[in-house]
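Progress note, project year one: complex with flavin-adenine dinucleotide.
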Amino acid sequence: MHDTSRLSRSQRRRVGVSFEFFPPKTADMERSLWEAIERLAPLDPTFVSVTYGAGGSTRERTHATVARIVRETDVKPAAHLTCVAATREEIDDVVRAYWAAGVRHIVALRGDPTGGIGTQYAAHPGGYATSTDLVRGVKEIGDFEVSVSAYPEKHPESASFDQDIDALKAKIDAGATRAITQFFFENDIYFRYLDRVRKAGVTIPILPGLVAVQNFKQTAGFARKTGASVPQWLADRFEGLDDDPATRRLIAAAVAAEQALDLMDRGVTDFHFYTMNRADLVYATCHLLGVRGKVPVGL
Ligand code: FAD
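Model obtained:
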């Protein structure tokens, strides 16, 4: 059945989208990343962000990807940055290099323990101790826009929701003006979290992070590590499709559409997509939300 009220709502409201990419490791990955950026850039995203890894080579790949976005597109990049395995001076140098390259938006994170998710986090002795310190350090270097993470199911290391939300508030007090959530599959989880943070006095935008499920097993495994729950109904939808990528893609598109449209129906106007460096599913979801590409000049 065709829901005309939904269509008219999406047309009336300006929907904002942002896209997250990860830095490519190989020439093939680089090609598919750029195909994705070129397809999604005309949707006029509020920003596109590039994730950051702890090792030296991934650090350079993030910088190279962000610098190329600045040079070759007119979308606004946001560079992710973590406190892991680096001194404060080294991180400050990266921040200065971003400023010099024309980047004005940093996504400031603590990062995961070097021993892997689930092991004890230990701050680098000469580095930033927490994401809050990093936010403060970035703001001291330049007038960056700073986004931070938020956890609708709380960060696995937080003892309670109160502690988790206190950490978010500390990041905001240090200068963060936007939070992007860990991905979630049940929209009620996001709205319950939104209620909690608003009651705690948080007023900044909390962008829902939506993951495009390309490979259910992989996504479910990653979710378990990061403390994001995977509902049984979702597992059921992908059941028996391990060797059927074409049907999996259709199911993934249906799941993404259902989630995004429900968020929109419930008042959400800004969406952050974990693209996994692929455009099709995200592009289709944005289209459903009423987001259209810029009309090429001359038409
Ligand atoms: P934080 O806000 O730092 O919280 C981590 C824990 O520390 C929580 O338990 C919190 O309660 C506690 N805490 C925070 N501040 C304080 C404080 N001042 N005092 C005491 N306790 C405190 N990882 C990467 O390696 N690279 C990326 O590019 C990347 N991008 C991400 C983007 C998003 C949107 C999200 C949601 C996560 C991303 N991550 C990335 C993962 C992230 O680094 C991990 O989840 C990490 O374990 C926590 O870092 P954080 O900044 O998200 O959390």
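Residues 220 and 230 are 6 Å apart (CA to CA).
The pocket of flavin-adenine dinucleotide is lined by residues 51-53, 80, 82, 107, 109-112, 130-132, 149, 155, 157-158, 163-164, 167, 170, 180, 182, 209 (CB under 6 Å).
No further modelling is planned for this target in the current period.
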